[in-house]
Amino acid sequence: MGAYILRRLLLVIPTLLGIMIINFSLVQFVPGGPIEQIIAQMQGEGDVFSGFAGGGNDLGEETFGSDSGYIGARGLPKEFIEELEKEFGFDKPPLERFLNMMWNYMRLDFGESYFRSIGVIDLVMEKMPVSISLGLWSTMIAYLVSIPLGIRKAVRDGSSFDTWTSGVIIVAYAIPGFLFAILLLVLFAGGSYYQIFPLRGLTSDNWEDLTLLGKIGDYFWHITLPVLASTISAFATLTLLTKNSFLDEIKKQYVMTARAKGLKESRVLYGHVFRNAMLIVIAGFPAVFIGVFFTGSIIIETIFSLDGLGRLGFEATVARDYPVIFGTLFIFGLMGLVVGILSDLMYVFVDPRIDFERREG
Asked: Is 15 part of a structural domain of the chain?
């Protein structure tokens, strides 16, 4: 098993390098870099996209549009543009910039945000608590609810319980997370009905003045609606996955043999079927966790005014804040690959009979 883990760890390097190369190459063809953002802001256009739509300002001075290559750079001295390029490192060819960036990342130097004057690591650590709260609680609730429910649906397959719960699950899966979040706000956050939960934020304004018990209660009071909104789709998928996995195992010969020996149904289900049926559920854990932790948090964080990694990534993309974009891509890409290895270890933990080294041989 040790040799298998070592090989997987070594594969992380080319995989992560490929991710960075593809994304860095794509960025070279995307219009509107950080320099164009600064030019647009200086000329009162708000952001670079206004420059593409309107063509820039005509300041009546000696223009610098044809030589600079930046849309909307009229009236700005060539020396100023060159100074900006040097400051951001765009005076060097793309290959050299990429190699320098990867060398810095290997030394855990992720640079500083172009527009916030703060290190990328410090920025990520500042936003991490919100995303951890959403990802951790959403994943935990999804597993704690979905696995028992999926097992019960498998045992009572075809019953009225299975039918109406399947209807609820299909409806839950069909509802987009952002739409469910808005519905929760309207119903329970003072929209048109009840004002039970707060409208935005992760803590109250008087957080520092609360007791320890009061802080815990205030935290869960704020996190309830965002967690419910981000859990709904994962809950539906995981429940059906668990049910189908158990149905496949229940029909196998070893289950019939165990029942014929007179074993209790609970012993058959949780002593024999559970270990085999949970393999496919465990295999889906990295996708569920990463999806809830990162992908699904962008809209949820925006709707509930939570300042987490989702909003950080969106704002960095809009502002073309490359150190934040590539720094977080490297960190979270590495985390995703490591989580994939951990899922293999969980396979072995649940079923020691699995031997990845023998399968590879």
From this structure: no
